[in-house]
Design a protein that fits this description.
The protein is an alpha/beta fold. It has helices spanning about 45-55, 75-80, 95-100, 105-110, 125-130, 160-170, 185-195, and strands at about 5-10, 20-25, 25-30, 35-40, 65-70, 90, 120, 135-140, 170-180, 200-205, 205-210, 210-215, 215-220. Strands 7-6-5-8-9-13-10 form a seven-stranded mixed sheet, with helices on both faces. A four-stranded antiparallel sheet has the order 1-2-3-4, with helices on one face.
Length: about 240
C-alpha cells in the first residue's frame, strides 16, 4: 500500500493544531492532529446531509442555503445537484488554506463546483453568516466538526449549545431546516434541538454510500409559526 504524504498544512484560527492535507495515490485526506476530518473516497454521509435537507425545500422559489464548512465539497456538490437554477448557496469556510486547497491540489475532487454561479464562497466563521438576518436562510447545513462540539476549535461550541440552537431557529425561515452532520450519535444535542423548538429527525447514512461507517445527520425543521421578535440574533 502506498504511504501517506503530507502535501501542506494550514493554521486554524483559534487553534494550536494545524490542519494537514495528506495524499496517498489518488486519495486525499484532511487531518486535525490525529483525527481524520474528511477523505476524498468517503463522502456519502456528507452528500446525504445536503440531499435530505434540500428535499425539504422542494417547490420553494429561489431557496437560500448556507453551508458551514467547505471541506472537500461533498455537501456543496450534492446541494447544487439537488437545487434548481434559482438557488443561492453561501459557503462559509474559516480556514484560508482549505479554500486554497480546493482551488489547488483538490481541484479534481471539487469538479468545478466553486465556479457554479449559484455559489458564493466566504472566508468567514459560519456563525457570523447565521447572524446575518432573521429568517435569512431556508436551510443551514453544518459540517464543521466531527460532531456537535468544537473539535477543531473550541469557539465552534457556540454553534451547538442552547444559544446556538436559538440563533439557528432565528436565522431560518418558517419551515426552514437545520442539518447537522456528526460522526456519531449525541442524545444531548438531539434533545437540545427539540427543546429549542425544532422538530427533529435523525438519519444514519453510511460514509461510502451503501458501505462504510454509519454517521449521523440531524434534520431539524423550524415549525411554520410566528417568527420571534425582530432584533439582534440571540446569544453571542
Amino acid at each position: 500500500m502506498l504511504p501517506w504524504i503530507e502535501i501542506d498544512t494550514g493554521p486554524v484560527p483559534g487553534c494550536d493544531a494545524p490542519l494537514r492535507l495528506m495524499q496517498r495515490g489518488q486519495e486525499f485526506s484532511i487531518f486535525a492532529g490525529s483525527n481524520e476530518l474528511m477523505n476524498s473516497f468517503r463522502g456519502g454521509s456528507e452528500e446525504a446531509l445536503a440531499v435530505l435537507a434540500c428535499e425539504r425545500l422542494a417547490g420553494l422559489r429561489a431557496p437560500r442555503v448556507l453551508i458551514g464548512g467547505l471541506g472537500m465539497g461533498f455537501t456543496l456538490r450534492a446541494a447544487l445537484a439537488s437545487l434548481g437554477p434559482d438557488a443561492h448557496v453561501a459557503v462559509a469556510e474559516l480556514v484560508p488554506k482549505v479554500i486554497a486547497w480546493a482551488k489547488g491540489p483538490l481541484t479534481g475532487v471539487f469538479k468545478g463546483c466553486l465556479d457554479d454561479p449559484r455559489v458564493a464562497l466566504h472566508e468567514a466563521d459560519v456563525n457570523r453568516l447565521i447572524q446575518s438576518g432573521q429568517g435569512a436562510w431556508d436551510a443551514i447545513l453544518l459540517d464543521v466538526d466531527n460532531g456537535p462540539e468544537g473539535l477543531t476549535r473550541r469557539e465552534n461550541d457556540r454553534l451547538y449549545d442552547s444559544w446556538g440552537v436559538k440563533r439557528a431557529l432565528w436565522a431560518l425561515s418558517p419551515n426552514g431546516v437545520l442539518g447537522v452532520w456528526s460522526g456519531g450519535p449525541d442524545r444531548k444535542f438531539k434533545a437540545r434541538l427539540q427543546n429549542g423548538g425544532f422538530v427533529v429527525d435523525e438519519v444514519r447514512p453510511r460514509s461510502g454510500g451503501r458501505r462504510g461507517a454509519r454517521h449521523v445527520v440531524w434534520l431539524a425543521s423550524r415549525p411554520n409559526r410566528a417568527a420571534p421578535p425582530a432584533g439582534r440574533a440571540p446569544g453571542r
